[in-house]
Amino acid sequence: MELMEGELEKITAEVEQVIKDQGTERERLIPILQGVQEKLGYLPKEAMKKVAEAVEVSEVEIYEIATFYNQFRLNPPGKHQIKVCMGTACHMTGGNIIMESFERRLDIKEGETTPDREFSLERVACVGCCALAPVVVVDENVEAKVRPTRVDGILLGFDMEKKAAEKEMQKAASEQKTQEEEG
Amino acid sequence: MTHSSHILICRGTACVSTESQEVQNELEKQVRERGLSEQVRVVHTGCFGFCARGPVMVILPRGTMYCEVRVEDVGEIIERHILGGEIIERLLFKDPQTYEPTEKIDEVDFFRKQVRIALRNCGHINPDDIEEYIARDGYKALGKVLTESTPEEVVNIIKKSELRGRGGGGFPTGLKWELTRKSVDDIKYVICNADEGDPGAFMDRSILEGDPHSVLEAMAIAGYAIGARQGFVYVRAEYAIAVERLNNAIKQARQKGLLGKKLFETEFDFDIELRLGAGAFVCGEETALITSIEGNRGEPRPRPPFPAQKGLWGKPTLINNVETLANIPAVILKGPEWYASFGTEKSKGTKVFAIAGKIGNTGLIEVPMGISLREVIYDIGGGIPDGREFKAAQTGGPSGGCIPATLIDIPIEYDSLLEAGSMMGSGGLIVMDDSDCMVDIAKFYLEFTCDESCGKCTPCRVGTKRMLEILERITEGRGREEDIDLLKELGHGIKETSLCGLGQSAPNPVLSTLRYFEEEYMAHIRDKVCPAGVCKKLSKIRIIPEECKKCGACTKVCPVGAIKGKPKELHEIDPDKCIKCEECIKKCHFKAIKK
Ligand SMILES: Cc1cc2nc3c(=O)[nH]c(=O)nc-3n(C[C@H](O)[C@H](O)[C@H](O)COP(=O)(O)O)c2cc1C
Ligand code: FES
């Protein structure tokens, strides 16, 4: 994934801060990576290199750990993160159908992010709400007893939100323009 | 100041997702606005266990339980229940079969047959307030052992209770404490295993969310007994609410001097830190967990040496599960004889189960060991919904197996479950009905373990993959008759030669379903049909032309546009497009669409 302008500076600053808080002992390695991901949303290559330097382990060792644990992601998450539960209870009540519905609607596969970085789609193993299966976690909200039609509803909601925000922006811009013209 | 009414509202994860926080906010607002703050106290609690009916609310002193409470209901609850002394029948729990309402929480069947020891405080106290834990005899057991008992005596109490590990293995807890105590070293550790990896279980999370102090207290008691001064809780990072409450609980305990230096004015120091698991099932295995805390890929190592001899950073380490620990303070205060009076000859005490799947009351329960599966499913669980038939229950998650309907009277305890080809596991209990396919379930678990295998040993890494490939071809209609024997042979081989418990138990879901449901496998292989209609490639959803009224309702609800035909034309499903979501079946008023 290409870095955007100013991203490298941000990565460097955040990684340095996390290392300052956590120290550079070997046993702090996983908490450091967790800290970096919390700040940046994922583990960029540049961040892993910096951590390797600081903790004095090889880069490949960091990569090993980052790919071993499910929590770590190597790609930036979308603005909205969709996590479909694939635990036992959710599997039995059609979790895979829900996953397929999202894949089809967003035109990405599980583990990917839409090109506009608006949505990312992940599978998770049991979020502990088995009583409400099948469950989808959208950003931090748990959606209970999701049906394929609800998938449409969720995405439509975001779509409308986005459109409304754009409209606001346009309105603000044109108002500003009129003001400027008048002024 | 005493309040005449207490309103307990569940803020466990499931209820939070059905907006219990909003209900609580509204309650607090209305109580304030109506000037009732003197009389009514609103308290958030951990999980009541009745997750399917959340948000759950209990009003004391009457003990009235209201289910599925919405923000809009708050006004009526204050008006009619609190001020008017009436019961709001609409919000009471109703029996899923008879629709009879029950008012009081302890009269509801779901709760009546339970014995709550590990869950004793869940749903009763505010987990964010240490005072409430102390008011229910919290930290009394720690004070008692520190001032009255020697470490040996503590070990003996636990041994006498015959408590066995609730993390899956069932190893006698007292014996483990004794072994760790006898390892000579200045530095030892206590670890609480809160990694809870079984995808369908949430017992440990509910305990941590509802009663974090009981686990902390037990860890300190364990530290005293084995001679450790430092403890770690290894908890899944995904358990956001549990992590927050644990952090808060540790902070409060330190402030009160219940963790830290010179506890209860003795020479005993003990402190606890959290370590967040980064999401790997194998890290629930004790040696993998230790490697992970040390900062590596969580790969298991051969035992012996056991953690009791050489654990974290090579030091003697005691690892216990959350639920095991939650029992400890109760065992100390009420005595080992009391604890051992519950359960059966070889399995004492109680066990917490997360029941889910095709059952009326999904949720969290704690029952005495030895209770029959039938009682759990029908008396507590409220039976199978939609008039369907019970087919099997899965216990032990990816390491366990299925118990068929013919064995429904089996007592739930360590040994009988093992004999039946399953295991106790950590406490996930998934109920299946006749619309569930056993081959598909076996494949589901194998996919999970195959994915989570750490890759260190060959039988587990390669063997599970080969088994999965065979299952995939069976569910896709490409199975061969000799596949059954091949699965059995591979399964036994992997069990015998894998390095850790993950591989040693990975074939169980396949072997146990083969044992009881070989016919179903054969139907997939020989007849190329999935009797339950689950395996996609082997089942079809059809429209019955004679029943179809050509209304067009199904075409609109189909998310993939697989149904052809305008209104007034005969509808037809394109089998290549159909994803078998069954939305059309639910939508059709004329029952013209069948699986
Ligand atoms: C693959 C695998 C996963 C495990 N996962 C867990 C777990 O999530 N939680 C747990 O407490 N024990 C788990 N265990 C069992 C632990 O290895 C260990 O036996 C347990 O934590 C000991 O505590 P107890 O004696 O109190 O049960 C797992 C074991 C295996 C082999
Ligand atoms: S299986 Fe999906 S929440 Fe537990």
Main attributes of the structure:
heterodimer; A: about 180 residues; alpha+beta; Glutaredoxin; four-stranded mixed sheet; 7 helices; flat; B: about 600 residues; alpha/beta; Rossmann fold; Ubiquitin-like (UB roll); 5 domains; five-stranded mixed sheet; 23 helices; globular; binds flavin mononucleotide; binds FE2/S2 (inorganic) cluster
What's the total helix number of chain A? 7
CATH homologous superfamily of the largest domain in chain A? Glutaredoxin
Unreliable residue stretches of chain B: none
The amount of helix of chain B comes to 25-40%
Uncertain regions spanning at least 5 consecutive residues of chain A = none
Strand content of chain A: 5-15%
Shape of chain A: flat
CATH homology-level superfamily of the largest domain in chain B: NADH-ubiquinone oxidoreductase 51kDa subunit
Residues in helix, % of chain A: 55-70%
> Quick one: how many beta strands of chain B?
19
Compute the separation of the termini of chain B in Å: 63 Å
Span between termini of chain A:
45 Å
Provide structural commentary.
The complex is a heterodimer of chains A (183) and B (595). By secondary structure, chain A is an alpha+beta fold. Chain A folds into two domains: 7-68; 80-178, Glutaredoxin. In chain A, 55% of the residues lie in helices and 10% in strands. Chain A is built from seven helices and four strands. Chain A has helices spanning 7-22, 29-40, 45-55, 59-68, 88-92, 95-106, 148-182; strands at residues 80-85, 119-124, 136-138, 141-143. Chain A has a four-stranded mixed sheet, covered by helices on one side. In chain A, strand 3 (136-138) and strand 4 (141-143) form a beta hairpin. In chain A, helix 2 runs antiparallel to helix 3 (45-55) and helix 6 packs parallel to helix 7. Chain A starts with 6 loop residues before the first helix and ends with a helix. The mean pLDDT of chain A is 90. By secondary structure, chain B is of the alpha/beta class. Chain B has five domains: 5-110, Glutaredoxin (3-Layer(aba) Sandwich), CATH 3.40.30.10; 130-340, Rossmann fold; 350-433, Ubiquitin-like (UB roll), CATH 3.10.20.600; 438-527, de novo design (two linked rop proteins), CATH 1.20.1440; 540-595, Alpha-Beta Plaits (2-Layer Sandwich), CATH 3.30.70. Helices cover 39% and strands 14% of the residues of chain B. In chain B, the strands form six sheets. A five-stranded mixed sheet of chain B has the order 12-11-15-13-14. In chain B, strands 2-1-3-4 form a four-stranded mixed sheet, covered by helices on one side. Chain B has a four-stranded parallel sheet with strand order 9-8-7-10, with helices on both faces. In chain B, helix 6 (140-148) runs parallel beside helix 10 (212-226), helix 17 (438-452) runs antiparallel to helix 18 and helix 17 crosses helix 21 (508-527). Chain B starts with a strand and ends with a strand. At the A-B interface, helix 2, helix 4, helix 5, helix 6 and strand 4 of A face helix 1, strand 11, strand 15 and helix 17 of B. The structure holds flavin mononucleotide and FE2/S2 (inorganic) cluster (FES).
